[in-house]
Design goal:
Blueprint: H1 2-18, H2 29-46, H3 57-77, H4 84-103, H5 116-144, H6 146-151, H7 155-168, H8 174-191
Length: 196
């Protein structure tokens, strides 16, 4: 999921531009080539055994998440008057309000009995990743624009594979490694805006 979603977000962002959702933006030949490499990278990272598996329920869920993330980043880029940290606060606050009923469910009360290791991991995921990481991300959207900032998300599949290998002992396949190399190449070409 971490590999597939983060590979597809920049591809969806560029596809939105290609389909004309932002009329003033013209794709350079480098960006088109990078988009092509990114699509190939996504196919390698999917690690499919059959074409039917492409539309399996988990892949569809992850593709939908990537689609919504790309759409959200294009929409938040339009909030020129708002500071990126304010946008991040509103997004997290609205998410908190939407998920609050789940926290109040009696099945969720086991969380009060968990150990310190759980809370340390929760701090890393909830605060460092969500608050700090997305604040940097929204600031990047503010400075670079949504499409170019989204191309840097392609670094995530490589770091996800590396950390899952170190922490979870997951061994990536050759296709996944090729997909990661292609993702890094896609970032380079998507970020290149001509000879400069």
């Amino acid at each position: 999921g971490g590999v597939l979603v983060t590979t597809m977000v920049p591809i969806f962002s560029y596809l939105f531009l290609f389909l004309g959702l932002k009329k003033s933006y013209k794709l350079s030949k480098y960006e088109i080539f990078g988009l092509f490499i990114g699509i190939i990278s996504g196919l390698f990272l999917l690690n499919l055994n059959s074409f039917e598996e492409l539309f399996g329920r988990f892949n569809v869920l992850f593709l939908l998440c990537a689609f919504i993330w790309a759409l959200m980043s294009l929409c938040t880029h339009k909030t020129k008057g708002e500071h990126p940290l304010a946008v991040n606060f509103y997004v997290n606050f609205i998410s908190f309000l939407l998920f609050t009923p789940l926290f109040l469910d009696s099945d969720s009360l086991f969380i009060l009995e968990v150990d310190m290791k759980f809370w340390l991991n929760m701090f890393v995921v909830a605060f460092l990743s969500t608050v700090v990481g997305t604040s940097i991300y929204y600031y990047g959207i503010h400075i670079l624009g949504s499409v170019r900032a989204n191309s840097f998300i392609l670094v995530t599949p490589v770091s996800a594979l590396f950390t899952s290998f170190l922490i979870l002992d997951e061994v990536p396949t050759l296709l996944t490694l090729i997909g990661c190399v292609l993702a890094i190449m896609a970032i380079y070409f998507m970020g290149k805006k001509g000879k400069a």
